[in-house]
Every structure is written in C-alpha cells, then in structure tokens.
Amino acid sequence: MPSVFLPHRALFRIGGADAESFLQNLITTDIVSMAPNEARPGALLTPQGKILFDFMIWRDGTDFIIETDRDQHDALVKRLTMYKLRAAVTLSTIEADGVTVSWDDATADGAADSRFAKAGITLHRREGKHGADDALLYDALRAAHGIVTSGPDYALQDIFPHDALMDLNGGLSFKKGCYVGQEVVSRMQHRGTARRRVVTVTAAGVLPAPGTEITAAGKPVGTLGTVSGRTGLAIVRIDRAGEAMAACTQLMAGDTAVSLTLPAWTGLTFPAASDEASA
Prior knowledge:
Elements: E1 3-6, E2 9-15, H1 19-24, E3 38-45, E4 51-60, E5 63-69, H2 70-84, E6 90-94, E7 99-103, E8 111-113, H3 114-118, E9 123-127, H4 135-145, H5 182-191, E10 196-203, E11 213-216, E12 219-228, E13 231-237, H6 238-246, E14 251-253, E15 256-261
Parallel strand pairs: 3-8
Antiparallel strand pairs: 1-7, 2-5, 2-6, 3-4, 4-5, 7-9, 8-9, 10-13, 10-15, 11-12, 11-14, 12-13, 14-15
C-alpha cells in the first residue's frame, strides 16, 4: 500500500449550526449528498465562474474539513470569513503537519477521494504524516488517471471547473441551486461549450519540463503540467487536439513528440471538428 506525505497541504475545520447550509450555498460541491468518509473536490469560484480557490472537503461528524494547498489556506479562510456575516459558523485551523494519501487499501484510515474512485482507485486522505513513500508515486498516479490540482497543473483564476473535470469527478453540482459563479458554469454545461479538458500526455522518452507549450503544426493546444517521466498532465483545447489527430498532425511538447489521451473514466472523446467533446 503506497503512502505518501504531502507537506504542502493544510487543513481547517468549519463547524456550527449553519455550517452545512453556509457551504452548500457558496461552493461548487453538493455536500448534502456527500457520504460519510467521502472526500470530494470543490472550489470557490469568481462571479465569472473561474476557480478562485480549489480544495478537498469531507465530513467530520457535523463539521466539515477542508484541505487545500498551504499557499491558499489563509486567503481561503479570510474569504470564507467574509461571506460568513452573521451565520452560526466557526472556522478554525487544524494544526496538522500536512496530509498523507494512501491507496490500494480499502481499509486504510481517512476519507476516500471521489476523484480517484471514479477511476477505480481507492485512495484515502488523512491529516498528519503517516507515510514515507516517494511523492513522485502520487504524481505518477495523478498523471495516469487525469487528476489535476492548482499550482502544478493550472493557475487559479485561469480556468473553469469543467476544464479540471470537476463536472465529472463529484466537485461540481448542477442541481443544488445557486452558489457563486453557478450561472456561468450551468450555462457551459447546458450549452456544451467546455472545450478545454484534462488529458494524459505520453512520449517515447522523458517529457520536457512543466510549463512547456503543447502545439499542433505550430499552433498552441495547451501547456504541460505535472510530469512523471514519460507521462504527464495537461489541460488542452480538445477541439484543436481532435482536429490535429484527425489530420494525422503530430502533437509536440516543445521538441518532443507526444500523444494525448482523455481519461477513460470520463467517457469523453476528442471531437474531429470544432465542436465539443461528447460523453
């Protein structure tokens, strides 16, 4: 059972009588339907529908635990406090030394990550340091299954939740009612206008560094994110990639020839023309 410690992750607790309704009306995740011991991805959006903060969230009794990147922690707590107003909600930092992720063991402690569950992987998240395996193992797992995170794979305020597959991995609800940015992402869903999607990038040799532009016939398609040897992640324009593949045009990451595949668990396909992916 691989077990990897992530020191760059931080947690805080949201409690109080109004905690559930407060979060349900604010973030992208449907927390009312969230099962005990289930961790779902979530985001707080800008009014324009782009990801302002991203995180994982799970229940702890009547409270909720939010796990986010350490660099986002203080700003996210401050933003949620601003929205709190007179609601019966408390926010408190959890003094844990990062987060540990473990997989391939259904009996492991922690909350089960719904993103990996979609891909058939049982992965648990728990506070503190409980593992000593190389962090590259976790990067390789994410790359193989199309699991992205801000920082390595995208910049905050730069992408919509659909771009990060949140419409498919349990992190974005279209049924629970209004929340910040909901109108924009609902319009994207109903009109089928999501053109940027997460792909796994592979090459015959080691991929170039993260941040390398992916092109087709010299035209930009996307940017390389997490890299794990010959495999990596990118968020790309699937209409442009689909056109290139249909025309047998070689996709390139810098000077390296690459292949792109959509995560199998999504059911998405590359369009051959300038239209959206179909599930």
